[in-house]
Amino acid sequence: MSWLQKLLPPKIQRTGAARKSVPEGLWTKCAACDAVLYSTDLEKNLNVCPKCGHHERLGARPRLDALLDADGRFEIGSEVLPVDTLKFKDTRRYPERLSEAQEETAESDALVVMQGSIKELGVVCAAFEFDFMGGSMGSVVGERFVRGVRVAIEQKLPFVCVTSSGGARMQEGLLSLAQMAKTTAASSQAMTWALVPMSGAGMSRYGPSRSEMRPVKDRVTGHNPLAPLYTSRSYYQRLARDGGPRPRSNSPAPRRGTSTR
Fold first, then answer.
1. What confidence tens digit (pLDDT) does each residue in 136-173 have?
2. What is the pTM of this model?
3. Number of C-beta neighbours around residue 67 at 10 A
4. Sequence-separated (6 or more) residues with CB below 8 Å from residue 25
5. Which domains does the chain have, with CATH numbers?
């Protein structure tokens, strides 16, 4: 210490106490406008940025909590758990990936099915958890989906599925691919709505959401954002029966000066 520092001691007295660190998860940065948001306020706003209106990803249970009434709901198929039937191993074993996904999401698999009500109207609702191995469809997802549809048929209730799936689960091989036919056959027997909050590959387009697609239009523009997903044969059969529009032909347009006969 120099003689000047001895004569003029610093005004700020530093102590040996450790600096307080900000706990993780307290703040969230918006992916669209880069605004730093308080995580609790963002959750209360259903993960919608109050600055720019950007929709962050919403998990399965928070989505069901926001969609269904608080009273009179119970989970369907929670006792069905995944099993490593094929003893699959790539860079890691399948049970290790399952355990990691279960710890991160606190879910046993990628689909949560509940019976409840929306504005006191009974409904059976299923929601995919994308953070669980990309929302991939395995045997458990297919079985829970079918059980939910059966309850909807027995109780004469509509079935709503919120899809955000990354496709078939490769760790279950052909057992996973068989779920596409299983879920499509089951949902064709019930009054089914598919909501597509995030367009993923695979099952989100060709699985549960493919069986019964309902027309939805934007209130302002009148544009149908889900029009490319209306590929269900039953959808077009109903339109043809009711005299509605027909699907577009895949044949190329005729050249100028040529006859279409």
1. 999 999 999 999 999 999 999 999 999 888 788 999 99
2. 0.69
3. 16
4. 39
5. 25-56 (no CATH), 58-212 (3.90.226.10)
